[in-house]
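Figure 6 in text form: structure in, sequence out.
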């Protein structure tokens, strides 16, 4: 009997990533190269390299962009100070922030206006967390992990709310929030779940697959929070081993030794062709029986940013 692959569905591109990548491609087609992009438009090595080949120039800060040029803000969002810095340099800008991240920014603004301390569950230094915190830096405290939840101090324990980075592990976030609630019984919840629908759906598919396989392979880059989480969730839910790879050729022969059944998924910033390349790589090693495991159908799409045809 052929060795088996359980292929997670949904996987790969989410609506926000699709929109962000299409924004850069549309800008290049409309205005010509170069188009500057602050940070990686999405956290995927292949996508960034492909856009660079078309004429996108990725920079860390607005200070690196020549005056008057076109700058696109990445899907992860930016602080108001970044918009201000761009305006000072007379940069034309297009904001490709994922609408689900924008929602969290608006929640920060609303809670800050109510004079609440905002506990932002997320990873210190992540671009999304930096952008979200920047909406109200005096009001936001980043809670990075369970230990931080146990020790964080706030000015008024009766005026505390929480929000989260959109790409976290659903289970880990719930554990952290439960710890916060023990310490702050009047903790105010966000009006809706902040964790991105795509992040949740991909984790649910991995939870279904992990106990059934010997090995899980996740296609994604190491700076992609949601991709890293998929590996962690796979191990937590019963996979004997799980690895993250950008490309099929990174799979090591020893990972496949004695493995009869492999689970395959990909992070929300990964194009499907990279998954196809991994499946072909595995097919050549006798993993020819592919069964798709579908836990949720996704149909959400986002329109391109306003003004893509006429930059601000």
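Output sequence:
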């Amino acid at each position: 009997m052929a060795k088996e692959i359980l292929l997670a569905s949904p996987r790969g591109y989410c609506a926000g990533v699709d929109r962000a990548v299409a924004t850069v491609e549309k800008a290049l087609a409309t205005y010509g190269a170069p188009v500057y992009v602050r940070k990686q438009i999405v956290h995927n090595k292949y996508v960034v390299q492909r856009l660079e080949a078309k004429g996108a120039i990725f920079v860390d800060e607005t200070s690196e962009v020549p005056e008057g040029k076109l700058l696109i803000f990445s899907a992860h969002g930016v602080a108001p100070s970044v918009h201000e810095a761009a305006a000072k340099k007379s940069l034309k800008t297009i904001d490709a922030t994922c609408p689900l991240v924008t929602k969290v920014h608006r929640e920060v603004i609303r809670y800050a206006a109510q004079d609440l301390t905002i506990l932002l569950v997320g990873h210190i230094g992540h671009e999304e967390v930096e952008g979200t915190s920047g909406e109200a830096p005096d009001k936001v405290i980043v809670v990075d992990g369970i230990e931080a939840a146990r020790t964080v101090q706030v000015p008024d324990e009766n005026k505390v709310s929480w929000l989260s980075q959109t790409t976290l592990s659903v289970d880990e976030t719930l554990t952290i929030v439960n710890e916060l609630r023990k310490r702050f019984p009047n903790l105010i919840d966000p009006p809706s779940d902040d964790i991105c629908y795509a992040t949740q759906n991909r984790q649910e598919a991995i939870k279904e697959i992990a106990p059934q396989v010997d090995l899980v392979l996740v296609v994604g880059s190491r700076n992609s929070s949601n991709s890293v989480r998929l590996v962690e969730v796979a191990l937590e839910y019963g996979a004997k081993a799980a690895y993250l790879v950008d490309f099929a050729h990174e799979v090591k022969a020893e990972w496949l030794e004695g493995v009869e059944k492999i689970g395959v998924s990909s992070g929300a910033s990964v194009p499907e062709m990279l998954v196809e390349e991994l499946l072909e790589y595995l097919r050549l090693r006798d993993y020819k029986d592919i069964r798709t495991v579908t836990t949720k159908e996704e149909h959400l799409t986002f329109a391109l940013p306003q003004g893509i045809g006429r930059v601000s």
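Caption detail: The mean pLDDT is 96.
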